[in-house]
Structure formats: structure tokens, C-alpha cells
Fold these 4 entries.
Entry 1:
Amino acid sequence: MCRLFAFRSTVPICDSTLLNGSGNSLATQSRRDAHGESHIDGWGLASYADDGVPHITKSLLPAFSDPQFGEVSRTVTTKTLVAHVRQASVGSAALVNTHPFIYERWVFVHNGTLQDFAARRKPLFDAIPYDLRTMIRGETDSECVFFFWLSRLRAAVGSINQTICVETVITAFQETVNLVDSWFPAHHGEESKFNFVATNGRIMAATRWGKSLSYLERLSGGEMSEKDGHPNAINAFRSVHISSEATDGNNWREVSDRSMIVVDEQLDVHAASLL
């Protein structure tokens, strides 16, 4: 299993406290989460530049003890960020298996496991178009699901690089999760878990299926100044944060199990069932 954290903001922000602060930050969760589990098999962080291109940093060290994670947390400023700490369940502890996974402008992370993946992977693997299948570099169930989801998205709109609406993202995830659930049923009494986050820097989607997931909508009024004789708000912003666990004492909302949310370009939050 793993832990994930992501946000979208109207302005570039640095959210070092929620990534690496003294509360229940992502780094804290990597040491020990709410269930007492550690996530020490590496970390990854994706942020988007002004040109919309994602930049990814990965490490095989635990986030809570890696100076690089602390440095990135303090310095990254962006409108869109996705971070992940890994507890390896499928695939070795290697950079190629470390989330986020990337294809063009899309990045993807997974909190969960597809049960008995090695024995049951063929239907999923065969359902990924050849050109996308050749992009898979690692051994994880998560990366395979990413490229399968991209194939559903591309089938709906023709190109994953064009503007994609909320409804299309929802449909692609509904199709993906329900097919993957049918291919990877419970094994030895353990259900498969499908908590995913995907973004292209403009729209962000998060699914909850079997693991905890919460989101926080934040509004900062900024400071007031005067420009040309009129009051003007500076440093004001809206943001939406998504996390496996609430990272602070703010009013986080729990995403219902077997459902999803999509944060659109205006940062409005849309909820939908995955069933």
C-alpha cells in the first residue's frame, strides 16, 4: 500500500507544511500512517511548470529521512502537484516502479494493490493498445492501470492531448475501475484497492475504492492593497487538496467509498459514483 497527496491551486503555491511539516504531513505518513504502517520504499513528486510540462523527482529513500524530500518540499512552487510515498506490494523497490508515472502531460499515482497481479495480469495487459503497452517500464500493477486508463480516455476523445471534459474523465475511470475489479477479485479474502489520482496539470481526478481518501477546499482572502484608487486583493488564492489522510486540522471532507471527485480547471469539485 502507499500514501498520496495532491493539490490544484489558482496561483502557484508552496505547501511545505502539508508535505513535510510536523503534523500529519505526507512525510509523517511515510514514517507511520494512521494504521501504524510505514511507507519507506521511496517517494516521488510531480509539479507543473508554467508551460504545463510536469517535472518529476523520485528517490528510493524514505520521505521522512530523505534530505532531498525536505528540500523539494520547501522549494517547489506550482499550481498543480502530486506526491506519493510507497510501500511496495507489486514490483521491487526501484526508481522505475516509483510513482508518479508519467506519459506526456499526464501523471498518475496509486494507493492500493491489485490482488494476485502476477497470475491475473494478462487480461489487463492485453487490453492496453500496443503503442501504450510499449511505454510500460516497470513491474507494477499501478503503471499498467495507468496506461489502460489512458487508453480508455483516448478511445473517448481521440487524443489525450486535447482539452478533456470532466464527464470524459469520469467515464474513463468508471470503465477502468469496474473492469479492473472484475479482473482482480478478492484473493485469500483480501479485496483489490483502487485509489488513483491522475492529472494533466489542468484537471485532476481522484478515485476511492477500498482505501481512505479526503479532500480540502481552501480559500485565502489574501491582503488588501489599493491600486488606482481601488481596493485590490493580493496573494489571494483558491486551492483543492487531496490526501490519503487529513494532513492537518482543517475541514477535510471524506470521499465516499467507490466514488470519485474531479477538480476542473476553475477548481470546482465534481463528485461521481464509480458503480
Note: The mean pLDDT is 93.
Entry 2:
Amino acid sequence: MTKLNLVTVCTDEYPMDYPNKLHRQFQKLTRLNVSHYCITDRPSELSHGIVPITPFKKSQGWWNKINLYSNKMPPGKILYMDLDIVILKNFDTEILAMEKYDESMCCVTDATTWMGETFSSSLMYFESGIHKQIFDRFVKFEDQLVGRKGGDQVWTGPQLPSIQYIDNDFPFLKKNLKFDLLEKYENTYIIPDLIDERIKLVDCGGRPKPHELDTVPYIYQNWRLV
């Protein structure tokens, strides 16, 4: 396949064990030839084998993800994953499928269609540099955008010329812990100890984070022990 770059973004106060664990788990499970990168302001804290990239435009919070669209990113295909995604299983099949789509962006559907936007920036696959206009526009209008409700994905989604939602073909690729997996019992929500064995990625966006889920077997095994 085309050169694949797994890229994460870890800036500000986000714990650096998150990118280290995600890259390590991915590498343990994949059979693909992958280069590992992390856009970060703390390069010395990255594990060996993960190449640091200094943010081309340092911003606030999730807006640092806009650096992914810069034409200064390493050439090839970019597979981006949010740091609070826990990898349960190999998903090479889905990655290889994404390479074959004609759309300019492959991603998953947002779990809540937040503010009416279906696009989710939690997992993305695209050609490096193809969306440089998004990065350039952000640099120009950053002061007007940071703090804007909805953040990076609500602003970015409408600018993408074409999107392939990978979960339409692979519905068990990624599930959101809070919105897809929680079970309601009377007035309490319970995190299940067992989930469908076909699920490959569990998205722990928001709270609780993976480091707070030691009692959940599939999180403990695939994050804490990594």
C-alpha cells in the first residue's frame, strides 16, 4: 500500500503516556508497514520510534489537530486517531479499504452528529497535504475561530469536498463508550464488562478517560497493560 503514517496530536497538558500507549498498541497489532509521528510540544517524552513534529501553528486544545492538514506533514497517507481511543484488535482490513476509496477524506460518523455535523475528526484517513487550504485558512482566521462552539470538526467538516464514512461498510470498527456502549439500569448508566467481540476500537472521548477505567476488562487489557 501507499506509505502509511500513523499520526497523533498531544499538546498542552495532555498526558504523554496516551500517544505512547496508542502507538505501541497499534504497532503490536498491525501487519502493515507504518511510520509513527506525534505532533507535540514535548518531544523528549515520546517513546522511541515515534517521530516528533513541532506544531506548525501552535493553538489551543483540539484546534492543534488543524496541523494535520499542513502541506509540511510527511508525504503519504495519514491515519489520525484521537488519543483516548483504545485499540482492541487489528484493523488493517479497514485501513486497506480506506486506501481504495476515491473520496478526499475517510472518517467515522460522529456519535451524536454534534451541532448537526456528521463528520468526526476522531479517526481520519487522507492524503498528506491534500487539504492544505484548511490549514492555511485556520492560520489566517485563528483569532476568530478559537473558542468557537463545536471546535475543529464542526468547522472543518463543511470544507471537505468529499467524505467516505468508513463505518457504513464496517459498523463495528469503532464504538463510542459513552454514546454507544453504556447500559442504562433504572437511573444509572453502567459500563459493560463485555462488549460485542467484533468491536475493534473503543472511543473514550470526554469522561471517563482510559486511565480511569481500570475495572473495565477490555480497557484494562488494551490500555493499562500496554
Note: The chain has one domain: 4-169.
Entry 3:
Amino acid sequence: MHPDAALSTFRLAEGTAIAPASPWYAAPVTLDSPALDVMTDLTKVKAATISPDRTLGQAEQAMIHQGVRMLFVVDEMPLLQGLITSTDLRGERQMSVGQARQLRFDEMRVADVMTALTLLDAIPYERLGHASVGNLVATLRDVGRNHLLVVERGSPPRIRGVVSRSQIERQLGRPIEVSEVPTNFAEVVQALR
């Protein structure tokens, strides 16, 4: 596989679950390092979760308390409904929903601004064994996201890990440029403004 080649992604289906956890640490890497070196393995690290009916303020506090920038949105563990990121909390989506529905930040719920499960980009866990950190960086750039979910196939499929742009940056010791790619019509309209 070419070191700059993006990995293929797929959209998640209803019924995708989160893998259970246990300690992991982040060692320095290069773009040629194995991709698995930068994946947060959810069999080793407990997934940070939140209910869709929690407020955005509660989500923000949960992120701060747990030292993360992304929470898995789950109604009943371990079934995943979507993700909410720190960008979602104070970004364009939050502003548009707030204006459209005449809601203040403290009145909005996670469900109002989260990215639904079926809109999430994922890569198969099995592909990471043959991929490099450079492949993951190319994939993040290709899909225009700060996070990729790593899915272990099975019945049901389960989220085995997370690849985070900020985690890769920490381990590389340098920033990575990723331009957000619109995924729906509202985001395309917003990008054109």
C-alpha cells in the first residue's frame, strides 16, 4: 500500500456496538509507524459516552472532566447512536439549530447537534494491521474529519477503536492540516456562504 493512500471508509449501520475497555499510552510515532500505534483501542480504554438527552453544557463538562474532545452518544449501552465533538458544541451546527429553534446553548440537547451513526466515517479494524500512520493522516484529510471510527466486523459490528487527529498530532509532535468536508446539504450551503 502506498504510504499516502487513503483507506476506504464506509458508513455505519444501526445496531453497531462499542467494544469494552482496559490502560494504554501514547508513544511517539512517525508517518511510517504502524497505524495501530495511534488508535485508541476501546478494549483497553473505556469509551467516553453521553446520553442524547443531556444538555450541551453537560456534554462540554463531560469532555473536560474526561480529557476528551469526542463523546460516543448512547441511549442504551453498548448501542451507538452517534458522536458529539467539541467542535459540535460551539460550531456552525449548534449556532444554526439554536437560531432556527430559538434555543439558548443551555437549552440544547446532545441529540440536537450530534452526528448520527449513519453519517460517521469508519474503517475496518482488519485493514489497520497493514496500514501506516501516513495512511490514517491521508484518510482523515480525504474525509475531512478529526476522528475516524475503527470497526471490528461481527454480529453486531462493534467500534473497536478511534483514530483522532489530535492524538496523532500529539504522537507525531506536529500539527496535521485537515479541511472539513461537508456531508449533507445544510453543510454544503453553509460552506458556500
Note: The mean pLDDT is 88.
Entry 4:
Amino acid sequence: MKRPPLLEGEDLLPDPVQRRSIAKRQGLKAAALASFGERGYEGTSLDDIAGRATMAVGGVYLHFRSKRQLLLVLMDELLERLERLDLRPDAALRVRPALHALLSKAFAADLSYLGAYRAWSEAARMDPTLASHDRRIHRWTISRIIALFQGLQRFPGARPGVDAAALGRVMDMVFWGQLARAAALRPRELREWIDVTADLIFHALFTDGT
């Protein structure tokens, strides 16, 4: 399953080609991530984002047509990062350390976009189109998690009869729920959560003697 095409049908402005314009666009996205993370979607205005990026609000409209479109671009970038994660299990690796490394990589990709997810989860409750996109996002991430679990079930020591689809749906909720509260966690707490989650998945799929 391909990642949801969030930007399909959006009247996007062309990407800048000059170095200065590229830097300004990147600055706007960084400012939006920070503001969305601190204030959420409704609490953030384009004036806030422009001020944080040290430019006039009119400069925002040279790159994005609206706050909503800026959020869509950021969420599309987050999904692109997740899509680049290689979730194919490697039989040459020990399962538990591999799960830990995978979760660490997933959160490394996600945490820099924490502001986008906080704003997205808020905006999707009010915008039917974004809510539809959100459902597609979850179907996509669930399908990838299930494929990972089904691949792991072919490894030696896997428990017979585990419902990989049900486990995948649960872990998808856990993953996104943890991402929503990750900003409040200290680095040590996040590492502990990754340890516990890797162990939980391992023991759900493999016998204790593995």
C-alpha cells in the first residue's frame, strides 16, 4: 500500500529554486513546526509563524497559500520519512535488538515533526477532508506494521497462532498515541518507553526461550 497522497489536488505553489528562497521556505516550515508544537493548530496563526521566521506575513504567501496547506506539506514530509524506514525483517539479526533499533529510528524520524502531528490531530477533528486523510494514514501505517509482524512470524521461535493484524492495529494506536505525548517526555523516559515497547512486541510474537 502506498502512502496517502495528502497533496494530491492541492494548488501548491512551485518549489523555490534560488538558494535564498529555499532557505526562507525551510525557515517557515521550521517556524511552523515549533509554533504548532507549542500552541497547536488553532492557537497558531500565520502571523505567529511569520514572526518566528523573522519575515512579514506576506512572505508566507509566496510559499504557502494557507496555514492548512502548510500543515499538509509538513505531514506529507513526515509520511515520506516514515516511508523511507525499511521495515523488512532481517533473519541475520537478533529480533529484540532489531525491534529496538527500528522503534528508535521511527521516533527519530517523527520527533522532529512532533509539532505537525499535534496540529494535525487537532485539525483533523474539525476538518472532514483532513479526517479522511487521517483514516488513510492509519490504514497505511497499520498495513506496514502488520507486514513487519507477519515477516517476523517466519523467524525461529515465533509463537504460533498470533493474530498479527490485531496486534498491528493495537501497536498503531500505541505508536501514534505516544507520539502525541512525546513532547512531554524527557529523553530518558522516551528511551524507557522504546525499551518497554520493543519487549512487549517481542514477547507477543516470540516464545520466552527465543
Note: The mean pLDDT is 90.
